[in-house]
Amino acid sequence: MRKKEETKKLYDLWLQKTSEKEREILNKMSSEEIEDSFYKDLEFGTGGMRGKMGYGTNRMNVHTITRATAGFGKWIKENYDDPSVSIAFDTRNNSFDFAVTCAKVLSALDVKVFLFSEPTATPILSYAVRNLKCSGGIIITASHNPPIYNGYKVYTSDGTQAVPRYAEEIIERIENEKFFDEYKEKEENISLVFNSVIENYMKDIYSEIEPIIDGKFEKERIVYSPLHGVGFKPVNKILKKIGFEVYNVLEQIIPDGNFPSVSYPNPEDKKAFDFGIKYSEMNDIPIVLATDPDSDRLGVTIRKNGEYIHLSGNQTGVIMANYLLEKFKKKDLLTNSHFIVKTIVSTPMIYKVAEKYNVKVYDTLTGFKYIGERIEKSETEGTGEYLFGFEESIGYLFGKHARDKDAIISSALLGIIYRDLKTKGKDLLDYLNDLYNEFGFYKEDLMNFVFEGIEGSRKIQSIMQMVKNNPLKNIFEMKLVKLIDYNAGIDDLPKSNVIELLFENDNKIIVRPSGTEPKIKFYLLANGENEDRVTGVLERMKIYVKEIIENEE
Question: Which of 37, 143, 157, 225 is catalytic?
Answer without folding.
Answer: 143
